[in-house]
């Protein structure tokens, strides 16, 4: 039988091993075959490391001039994906042997840490992870150990948050979600700012996350400045919600960027003023505005909308007109680009996945706990993304025309 990721294992060896297996517990139980194999293989590997360290095998005579030799074993219990495994670690007389497979004072293999991080990234609390490991592997893991493992990603978060970025992004979506965090003994709502970029190759990339007391244009200005500091020279199109001052914050740093207010946000804000019995019809009547062929058609459709609904809901038409120059930029582009810039759905879908994790956690003890969970969750989400958007070559060709000279040459 051939292995997909390693050397082939002879079928007769597997058949011989499975002769003693008659029920699942014989293979997966606390004294099952997998646990025994794990221990034996680790011990064999440690013996090989010792032979390499000393320069001769266990069954060979000690070479002339050799000053060091084997000196028995030390028993050690490890935490593995198969539960607790007891192994004998060889010692040498001079105490200079430093095993690489299982380092001194190490009580768990790397795969076990990965399992803890995977559970944490799914939104499980320390207590939930502790119970899961006990149920699945029969391993009693202290909350302190779980906290130490998850805290080990702190350096990864810092490196990720400060990594250099591409010089040009075709689109950057900007949005925030709210989390509950304990701050000075009181649970408060805090805003987590997220920036999602679309590269010149069409792939999506989370550019960073930031935590602040409330969502506001002033803090968004700080976020945009940080993106520039990390290497971003140009953003062709920025998509954001209708937060007051947000477009000005973007243009203060990237004056040539086209700022597009999210149409979906505009529709939702409009529906807030409408009685339930009118909502469906009114939203349908708004569609000709954002589905128009051009700016002129959109303005004519808005006038028609106001003629029907303006007396009953005057604030809706006023809201669209007050934001008009941020609402209609997408109408200057062909359909290939319109569908990917008129809404912040790309980042709202991301936020939706994160909100599910946050909801199950209730509130967080501090900002660091929020950052750890969201970073690990984002790492998992990015693995599932397509490498590039559909029909990206068509959209890129349009970008090259509309933003002549601003795309990299290669």
Question: What would your notes on this structure say?
Answer:
This protein has 410 residues and is α/β, with parallel strands linked by helices. The protein folds into three domains: 11-106, no CATH class; 108-152; 167-402, no CATH class. The chain is built from 18 helices and seven strands. The strands form two sheets. It has a five-stranded mixed β-sheet with strand order 5-4-3-6-7, with helices on both faces. A hairpin with a 2-residue loop joins strand 3 (168-183) and strand 4 (186-198). The two termini are 45 Å apart. 27% of the residues are buried.
Feature tags:
410 residues, alpha/beta, 3 domains, 5-stranded mixed beta sheet, two-stranded antiparallel sheet, 7 strands, 17% strand, disordered N terminus
Q: State the shape.
A: elongated
Class by helix and strand content?
alpha/beta
Order of helices and strands: HHHEEHHHHEEEHEHEHHHHHHHHH
Q: Uncertain regions: pLDDT < 50 for 5+ in a row?
A: 1-6
Tell me, rounded to a whole number, the average pLDDT.
81
Measured between the Cα atoms of the first and last residue, the distance is 45 Å
The residue fraction in helices comes out at: 40-55%
Physical arrangement of strands within the biggest beta sheet: 5-4-3-6-7
Q: How many helices does DSSP assign? A: 18
Task: Tell me the number of structural domains.
Answer: 3
Largest sheet: 5 strands, mixed
Radius of gyration in whole Å, from Cα? Answer: 30 Å
Q: How many beta-strand elements? A: 7
Percent in strands: 15-25%
């Amino acid at each position: 039988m051939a292995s997909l990721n390693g050397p082939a294992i002879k079928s007769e060896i597997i058949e011989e091993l499975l002769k003693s297996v008659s029920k699942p517990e014989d293979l997966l139980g606390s004294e099952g075959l997998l646990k025994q194999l794990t221990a034996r293989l680790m011990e064999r590997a440690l013996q090989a490391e010792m032979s390499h360290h000393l320069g001769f095998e266990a069954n060979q005579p000690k070479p002339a001039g050799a000053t060091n030799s084997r000196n028995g074993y030390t028993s050690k219990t490890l935490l593995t994906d198969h539960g607790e495994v007891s192994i004998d670690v060889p010692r040498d007389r001079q105490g200079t042997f430093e095993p690489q497979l299982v380092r001194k004072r190490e009580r768990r293999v790397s795969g076990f840490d990965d399992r803890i991080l995977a559970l944490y990234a799914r939104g499980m609390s320390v207590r939930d992870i502790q119970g899961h490991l006990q149920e699945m592997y029969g391993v009693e893991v202290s909350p302190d150990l779980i906290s130490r493992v998850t805290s080990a990603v702190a350096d990864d978060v810092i490196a990720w948050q400060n990594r250099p970025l591409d010089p040009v992004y075709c689109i950057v979506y900007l949005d925030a979600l709210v989390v509950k965090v304990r701050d000075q003994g009181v649970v408060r709502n805090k805003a987590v700012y997220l920036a999602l970029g679309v590269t010149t190759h069409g792939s999506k990339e989370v550019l960073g996350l930031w935590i602040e007391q409330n969502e506001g244009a002033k803090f968004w200005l700080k976020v945009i400045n940080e993106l520039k500091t990390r290497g971003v020279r140009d953003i062709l199109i920025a998509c954001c919600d209708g937060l007051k001052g947000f477009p000005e914050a973007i243009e203060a740093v990237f004056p040539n960027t086209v700022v597009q207010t999210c149409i979906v946000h505009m529709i939702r804000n409009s529906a807030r003023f409408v009685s339930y019995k009118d909502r469906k019809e009114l939203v349908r009547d708004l569609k000709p505005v954002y589905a128009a062929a051009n700016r002129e058609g959109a303005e004519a459709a808005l006038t028609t909308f106001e003629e029907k609904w303006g007396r009953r809901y005057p604030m809706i038409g006023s809201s669209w007109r007050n934001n008009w120059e941020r609402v209609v930029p997408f109408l200057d582009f062909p359909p290939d680009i319109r569908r990917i810039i008129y809404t912040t759905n790309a980042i709202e879908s991301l936020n939706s996945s994160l909100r599910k994790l946050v909801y199950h956690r209730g509130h967080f003890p501090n900002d660091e706990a929020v950052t750890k969970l969201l970073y690990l969750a984002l790492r998992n989400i990015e693995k599932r993304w397509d490498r590039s958007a559909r029909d990206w070559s068509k959209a890129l060709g349009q970008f090259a025309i509309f933003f002549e000279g601003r795309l990299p040459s290669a």
